[in-house]
Amino acid sequence: MLVPTLDYESFLHAVMATTGDLIISTDPQGAITTWSAAAEKATGYACRDVRGSRFADHIEEPHNKEVDAFFRKIAEDEDRRCVDWPMRLRSGESMPLSWRLSRMTDQAGEVAGVVAVGCNPVEQRVKETEMRQGEKLAALGMVIGGIAHEIRNPLGVSSAAAQLMRETMTAPALLEECIDKVIAGIDRASLVVESLLRFARPGPITQTTKVDVLDMLNNALALASGDAAAGTTVDWQPPCMPAPLYAEGVQNLLELVIVNLILNAFQAMPNGGRLTIAGRRDGAEAVIEIRDTGPGIPEAHLAKIFDPFFTTRSDSRRAGLGLSVSHAIVRQHGGNLTVRTSPSDGATFVVRIPGARDSSAAAGAADAC
User: Fold this and answer.
1) Lowest-pLDDT choice from 84-93, 200-209, 301-310
2) Distances in Å between the alpha carbon of 12 and those of 3, 30, 237?
3) pLDDT tens digits for 270-287?
4) CB–CB of 235/217 below 8 Å?
């Protein structure tokens, strides 16, 4: 079978006849030499009507003066430029266009002319919107998968524990353990829902209370401990006593932050390791550190770890919202969430939140610990 071939000139004509963008070429003085089919359709002018006319004459005032200035300095200008010049149509109307101007040179390096490619910015924005919508739908699909996994797990534990309760009503110790599992599973599912709501409808923190940091850390560890791999140990470094450490905030939201950070640490240690939880006061701030002995965070990922939907898990079972939601909650409290990492020491997430407003009297004792 013979495949038809085109010479170079025919190929250029074919491109100009099929592309949706306006393609116009000129000589070095700005006189039009070619005018694509898309330009004919958009402007109402046929190529024979405009050949030899000045490109500037088809651009609306006062932008036509910019065109003249461009051609006067064409030999000194950059090889390519992007500009917004509205074009005058045959109907007398004006069409907004974004132009990409490319200078052509001959074999001797002399300027031979200019190729101007124009596209409608409105249509371009529509295409970009459609692309963004597609990306959002893809992200939504990933989130839905993560939600299903995150909620199914604690509910599955609760269901199994409830069935076991039905069969072992005569064993009080086992019954109490099952009840604890049901409550923990429901609390875990509620935290997932709270996380999604905070991500979907972020807002300022308006009503805060004095939060006991030690109590908050205990609750968070209890909620997340079920995800720890075998062989994981916890190095518990609670806030100094006897002066308790208080933060100013919303306890269930701050607990959600710590749960997410502990879960993140457990995920970094799939074969076990050491989780370190520490709390202290630093001036007017309560500081919490969550440290793991995992492989650390690669340098390439550091700038993205707080981005929504970012995850390095190959099974895609998590929605990639934990760290981004935690970062948002801490910022809403007027605090700061940072990370330091190295291959030898794992990762340490540092939460800084304002101390309780009425706990300044205890600060001196806590700082001395």
Assistant:
1) 200-209
2) 18, 20, 73
3) 999 999 999 998 989 999
4) no
From the list 79, 76, 25, 75, the residue with the least C-alpha distance to 55 is 25
Residue 359 in contact with residue 210, Cβ under 8 Å? yes
Chain-wide mean pLDDT for the chain? 79
Q: Which residues make Cβ contacts (< 8 Å) with residue 38, sequence separation at least 6?
A: 19, 20, 21, 22, 23
Report field, pTM of the whole predicted structure over 0.70: no
Tell me the domains of the chain and their CATH numbers.
Answer: 8-119 (3.30.450.20), 124-201 (1.10.287.130), 205-367 (3.30.565.10)
Q: Which pLDDT value is given to residue 8? A: 47
pLDDT digits (tens, 9 = 90+) for 23-73: 999 999 999 999 988 889 889 999 999 999 999 999 999 998 999 888 888
- Rounded-to-integer distance, Cα 59 and Cα 53, Å: 12
Per residue, the 3-state secondary structure of the chain, as one string, reads CCCCCCCHHHHHHHHHHHCCCEEEEECCCCEEEEECHHHHHHHCCCHHHHCCCEHHHHECCCHHHHHHHHHHCCCCCCCEEEEECCEECCCCCEECCEEEEEEEECCCCCEEEEEEEEECHHHHHHHHHHHHHHHHHHHHHHHHHHHHHHHHHHHHHHHHHHHHHHHCCCCHHHHHHHHHHHHHHHHHHHHHHHHHHHHHCCCCCCCCEEEEHHHHHHHHHHHHHHHCCCCCEEEEECCCCCCCCEEEECHHHHHHHHHHHHHHHHHHCCCCCEEEEEEEEECCEEEEEEECCCCCCCHHHHCCCCCCCCCCCCCCCCCCCHHHHHHHHHHHCCCEEEEEEECCCEEEEEEEEEECCCCHHHHHHHHCC
For the segment 157-168, what is each residue's pLDDT rounded down to a tens digit?
A: 777 777 777 666
Cα gap 334→328, rounded to integer Å: 10
What is the pLDDT, as a whole number, of residue 298?
A: 85
Q: Which range is least confidently modeled, 7-11, 83-87, 166-170, 224-228? A: 7-11
